[in-house]
Protein 1
Amino acid sequence: MLIVTCVKQVPDTTQVKVDPVTGTLIREGVPFIINPFDTYALEESLRLKEKYGFNVAVISMGPPNTEVTLRKALSLGADEVILLSDRAFGGADTLATSLVLAEAIKKLGQTQEVAMVICGRQTIDGDTAQVGPGIATRLGYSQLTLVDHIENVDLKAKTIVVRRRLEGRHEIVQAPLPAMIAVLREINRPRYPIVPMRLFAQDAPVTLWNNKVMGLKEDTIGLKGSATQVRKIFSPQREKGEIIGDGIKYPEAAAGLLIQRLIEKNILCL
Amino acid sequence: MSLNISTIVFAAAIMLFCWSCYRRFRLLLIGKAEDRFKDAGRRIWSVLYYAFGQRCTVSHGYRFGWNHLVLFWSFMILLVANTEFMLEGLFPNYISFSLLPSSIYHPLAVLIEIASVLALLAVCIAITRRLAFPPKYIEARSRDAFIILGLIALLMLAFFGLHASKIAQGNEEAASYMPVSEFLASTFLKNGSPGSLNGYSEAFWWLHAIVLLGFLNYLPFSKHMHILAGIPNVFFRSLTKVNTQPREEFKKGNTYGVGKIDQFTWKGLFDSYSCTECGRCSDNCPATETGKLLNPRLVIHDIKVNLLKNGPPNRKETELPLIGGGKEGSISEEVLWACTTCGACMEVCPVFIEHVPKIVDMRRNLVEMSAKVPDELLSLFENMEQRSNPWGIVPSERAKWAALADVKTFVAGETQYLFYVGCFGAYDARSRKVSIAISRILNSSGISWGILGKDELCCGDSLRRLGNEFVFDRMVMENSKIFKEKGIKKIITQCPHCYNTLKNDYRQYGMELEVIHHTEFINEMIRSGKLKLNGTNDRGNLVFHDSCYLGRYNGIYEAPRSVISSVTGRAPIEMDRHNDRSFCCGAGGGRMWMEEGTGKRINVERAEEALKKNPATICVCCPYCMTMFEDGLKGIKADVQVLDLAEIVSEALK
């Protein structure tokens, strides 16, 4: 049985700046990293592999340089990696992305039964947290989001029990397989690759599936297949703040002034 | 009849000894190859100076080393006497010194007599010391130690008994050259009948024989194996300072680091045979001293035990893991991660055992073959690999500090010196002030210098000491590329760790750089008169702390002291442990990035030691030491400032 892990290569957003004139991202010199949330998804897949003997396939949609991220997945212990790359896939929003990923998972399912799709809770560049649920909906899988612990997998009964972390409470959920699981950072601690695996990953095969292989309709994928169009990207303007009192010489007095001001503005009330 | 028995007994005992030695020493062959024969001339000189000159045992202020010197030389002389004794035992009536011309025999007799007296005295001193003034380390009082000392004492007593009986019998031609034996004979055996004297003589001869042969056969199984292995180990020592680790070749099918006993080199294994269990390493180890699990002597001991267990071919027991701990012969991971790589153990080891490279080798195995690392290190490794600094701060912020100083960027072909700021100097708020001070000094000295700014990368020191050689290797490649592209040949560093890494580790990659630590640079500039100081800047009691990577790793002790004397008008106050016996701040070897959960904090121990000298200022030369001292003092709330040497100099500039 197969676990499919979805990962995305993202620009290191802490190093991304927006060009104030054109309103576009300055990508030059910004390193790409594996979406941090996805590293937890991959780690959980690998742990399930070790525990239950699943195969782990890692898929990613992105430009050709995404290969680097997929090789990292190989070095950590993924059995198979597939790069979904085609100009036609470019500019996709979550709707179009989830379609390509779901179709790829279907394709993988033709040779091996898919038990689970594991995703990170969201990406750090788009921050929508929609692709995982999108895949689940398209494939008709159980949809388990915000998972911080996998309690049990019953391969005979084909069920899974997970713990979901919600505001102020946990929820233990049982669901039939196949299931899409979107995991939180708290679920595990990703491993570090050992050197022999890194060397192996350097020239292990990365399968490329472009749209010739996928054969998807042009108007359902990429920018054309997207319901969302980005009109503008900009950094929010922040009004210049005000220094209240002299916090260095008279910290207590400054704190008093601050509290008074907050009360006046109705931010604090007595 | 007795003649035949002695031949049989001696032959059997000597054969048994040779067999034991063969069984032990052949195990070394399971180790990997390593060339330790090159430069034989210097090696022989080392043996003469350190072993025969006993420089190794009397060094570093170890006063009891003198006792060892006396014992060593007595043994050397007695080796001659006992060789004769053994040959006599094997071939009775054919071999004896007394057959030599008296012009040789008489002086020899005196010499042997003196050596025996000295050996007996030295043994008595050693026993008294262990009983009355026990050294800190518990091993000195081991059963092994007392058995050996007892055997030597007994051997000497048997020697005197034998000679005294012979003299009393009138069978000793050189009696007047054996004052002690003669005294014993005339005091105790004057009225003995010929029969009883003959009995005494026989009895002492056999006692001497049994103790000697027993001692011989006990050697390979005790810590006194060092009598056999110690001198060769001095011969095979590293002729240069052990301040780096060897490179690894990253190729498919290779294994990395040492996870099994046969992955050490033969010299690594030989080290374990040479250990005398003197305890000097653990005595000087900051981890041992502050209650961590690590004890460098036990690491070496465990390697020996593991070798003896796993080394022999065709053994039936299951293999004892080298790393894992739990029992003798297996080293726990916690032990390996506790090392600060300060090198104090290697500095004081009288037989030149190389502890630190072994620990790093085992760390390499943990990191590279099984990725078993303390959690804190996972983010460090990621940060280093992704952003080339330990904190994972955005690389574009590397040059931010320079806005506050008069700094130029290094221009290929124009700028002469690169000021390699280092991660601390660039990102750490406290160390940035030191970077600014150094910039000021560099500007005042009038040299042409520049920085790489945001293009600078981490040197990789912590990764190498933590055993992440794979990523270190990549970082060296990247840095080397930059240095080559920009034609960088001369580098001034702020951090002793950058200094050591660029200077000693990068050499393995063909990078011959002239690396200068800022203390050396400042010292040179003051001496040549290029830096002008504004008279004396008294800073009250100023205590100086030696950084391990400057001092022990690179022998820089005088430069900072001389600068302090020039600037403040008086020599710095020395802590109890200083120069080559200096005590680590606790941050080296990647410990900077790890939690310190066990025992007392090393930096607190060191800060308290400094405070004993009642300082107004503690002067350091390393950003790690700076951080550790400031943190260590926080809990104590002492009104002491910690300054880098560069800051003190910068304020004293005209």
Protein 2
Amino acid sequence: MLAFAFTPALGMFLAFVAITLVITYFSARKAKGSAAYFAAGRSITGWQNGLAVAGDYMSAASFLGISGIICLKGYDGFMYSVGFLVAYLTVLFLVAEPLRNAGKYTMADLLAYRLKQRPVRAMASLSTLTVSTFYMIAQMVGAGGIIEKLIGVPFAPAVIGVGVLMLVYVVFGGMLATTWVQIIKAILLMGGAFALSWMVLGKFDYSLTRFFDAVAAADYGGTQTPRNLLDPGLAYGASAANPWGAWDFVSLALGLVLGTAGLPHILVRFYTVPDAKTARVSVVWATAIIGLFYVLTTFFGFGAAVLLKLTTVPADVVAGFIPLDAKGLPNGNMVAPTLAAALGGELFFAFISAVAFATILAVVAGLTMSASTSFAHDFYSNVIHHGRETKPGQEVKVARITAFFVGAASIALAIKLGSSVNAAMLVGLAFSVAASANLPVILFSVFWKRFNTTGAVCGLGVGLVSSIVLILLSKNGLYDAKTAPFPLANPGIVSIPLGFLGAWLGTLLTPRDPEAEAKFAELDVRSQTGLGAEGATAH
Amino acid sequence: MSTPENFDPTPISGGPTDVAPLGRGGEKPAHERTAGEDGDPYDWAAIANDPAFAELKRAKLRFIIPGTIFFLVYYMTLPVLVGFCPELMKTPVWGKVNIAYLFALSQFVMTWVLCALYVRAAKRWDRMNAELLARFPRR
């Protein structure tokens, strides 16, 4: 049934959709040619791209997921906030500028620069599609469940609606529209986070001391007895049930800090700016915005644990009861909207819900964009057609068709999986694949002259396979906590070194590649100085 | 729907060359050429062997290598301490606020400070870079 009530949340969300569609319309009129479609004409300024990077990063997992996990697990949830931010130092120091200087549209441009194009691009494209698809299914599945509760649209039409809108942005508007959707959403999200934090502090007379005193005796931490939520160990503490807890914590932290620098939908953002200097500025903007946001998670995450109430009755969000999920446990994803309803009433609940919906929509669009760019540019143009366009505009056309299929496939998968799939597992998989497969080969191709094609293919392959296999063997995969052959939920601490080892051994065990080493001087000069880099199209 | 240009909320992105279809017969504009098509407009080897280039790379690595080691160690110390010495981390410092939370908060400050230091260092690299490139015009 498609009949649903016209709620304020739905109204606010429709307003957001209307604004973004206008932008898509205008973007579509001027987005002609590959650089315009894939990289927004390289015309995005530093602060704009900073907001867009922040927008891509502050997904539903960040906003709804982190506030939920802090509320339910206390300090251990806050570790996600820390890891997600520090990760930007990896991006800034090691990846952003060389990538912008030596690439064109995708991560593989840098990897394949001095190596054999086809094998390297095929593997890089496979890894990009894997990361994007897992990340996207997680967002879509999360989206369906949340929209059902927030806006009152049933699961299947909600997912189809998100999918179709996302396709409109990507297919017609390309990177320019996707970027502006991200910027608007980032501003809305920051506004919502500030307002929510301010209201929480208001409950404690704007006194930090009183706030932290209350957090230290919160009666809502998934425990139902008062407990100091600032103490670590609720989720990852070593215990009889989970003797590997501390290692899991270290592994998660490692995956977070190294994974971001390999996430394709973040990396493609650096091609939308005119030069490496602007890429640098945009990382700095993103770090400032994201950092501020994650500091605020203190207030609306811990605040929710103090102010909201556990319930076993059907939820009443306005009274501050967190709704339950299918298993009868408090639904972490509903913590932020419930807090908004309890503090700011129905209209503020509507605003936060619409922001959450916009967040999912924008991130899904960004992911589809990076997946279809990689397929069209790396796989179709360079692997199948050896880097030559068969017809004018073929690459963009293929990307649009790919976007359609990627969108349709993830809509179908999300509806098929329903809300039974573990979204955290999918996002964890995306981060560990990014850190284990993509990061080692990016670093080696920029900094190691001897690096060769076999090394790149091995590094990508070993990183990709080891992280997927380890997750399948863990309690997040095919096993439960007692029987899992691999004791950690996060594979990073094993799979990241394996990715580096694969790339290193693959290189050393095969003959030197004189051609690749001869081109190292050129790549080195390009990536370090930006000489000959692809510039902005508007001169 | 009438769409006067001045209602357009998005920035100008397309230059005149941008609108031309790809794959056209004639020569591509400079910014659209790929490395292969460029036909080596620069003497890469000469730049790579220039002492000023080596100096630029050294300057970058002198910042990036210690910086990366520092932030990775500083960051990973947090999960290691939290995981293996939870009792130490639960020690209250300021009211009810414990070492664990303050250490986590210090990671934010650390990130912003390193960001600022990087930007300052990068300004120096940009100057060195400009001086280097001025001596190697496009041929």
